[in-house]
Design goal:
four-stranded antiparallel beta sheet, 8 strands, elongated
Length: about 110
């Protein structure tokens, strides 16, 4: 399978004392998303696609601050995983053992 990895950054320059927390949902099976609280905060999305991972996934990334009242921002990122098929030497055989993944590479939540 293909490895999908990217970072998501959350910042609050207006209130640098606020601690920011990133989250992501819903996550496809076998996805890891880790983020340490801070300002700025950076989260790492990591997914090793497997057979059966093909599909379109809409994941909402959110950042919340520690202020009162709590302020937040969110952005939906769509990840598309498509089977990558190659034709064999004699048509109509083809192999679909890898995946092509399309995902935007940089996002910043403010």
């Amino acid at each position: 399978g293909e490895i999908v990895e990217f970072t998501v950054t959350g910042t609050d320059p207006a209130d640098p004392e606020d601690v920011l927390t990133l989250s992501a949902a819903p996550l496809p099976p076998l996805v890891k998303f880790r983020a340490a609280p801070g300002n700025p905060t950076v989260g790492v999305f990591l997914w090793h696609t497997q057979p059966g991972s093909a599909g379109v996934y809409a994941i909402t990334f959110s950042v919340d601050d520690s202020g009162i009242p709590v302020q937040s921002a969110a952005r939906v990122i769509t990840i598309t995983v498509r089977p990558f098929c190659t034709t064999g030497s004699s048509s109509p055989t083809f192999t679909c053992s890898q995946y092509k993944v399309s995902v935007p590479r940089r996002y910043s939540l403010r």
